[in-house]
Design brief:
There is one protein chain. The protein is 38% helix and 23% strand. The chain is built from 3 helices and 6 strands; from the N terminus they run ααβββαβββ. 29% of the residues are buried.
Length: 180
């Protein structure tokens, strides 16, 4: 006798499996995205630490480069930093800018900083990644900025900024709470 029994899944079984996969994906995808954001933030902080270390080496090794770094500042920006819930506003001098994710070199934003930037370009890798390109609030970041506080020629701060030489988020030291 011939059997009409076919092997395979019924439509209901397939729909149930698809629903289970959908539920698991809705749970796992946001979790994975959170890990990716944390990894990107950690990478950016590490890159900023390296930039700051290179700047520190340059300005402590040679007095001429320190004078170049601390020279005249024509690009001043008022900034506000939020760290551990506290807000602080001050003025920074933007010394140099580098477009992230390109092979461009650091650019001095003032003629006085040209010697410092030339030495920095000799030390730095040609491509420095900026993992956060667009933050949750819509800010688009495309450059690294080396800044110092106005009135303190020895301070070193590394910021993520926009193409208009505007420091938007301090990455080093004490990474801003908003840089997430």
């Amino acid at each position: 006798m011939k059997s009409n029994f076919r092997k395979g899944f019924t439509l209901i079984e397939l729909v149930i499996v698809i629903c289970i996969i959908g539920v698991l994906a809705s749970i796992l995808v946001p979790s994975a995205m959170g890990y990716i954001r944390k990894a990107n933030r950690s990478t950016d902080i590490g890159t900023a630490r390296t930039i700051r270390s290179d700047v520190s080496i340059i300005i402590t090794d040679d007095g001429d480069f320190a004078n170049s770094y601390a020279g005249n500042c024509s690009t001043r920006r008022n900034v506000t930093v939020i760290h551990t819930g506290n807000s602080e506003s001050y003025t920074v001098c933007v010394v140099a800018r580098k477009e992230a994710n390109t092979h461009d070199k650091w650019k001095a934003l003032d003629a006085d900083a040209a010697d410092f930037v030339k030495e920095l370009n000799a030390m730095e890798q040609s491509k420095i990644a900026l993992k956060f390109k667009k933050l949750a609030n819509g800010d688009e970041l495309d450059s690294w900025l080396i800044c110092r506080r106005s009135g303190d020629p020895t301070s070193i701060e590394v910021w993520a900024g926009d193409s208009g030489n505007n420091p938007l988020y301090r990455v080093w030291p004490e990474t801003e709470d908003r840089y997430k």
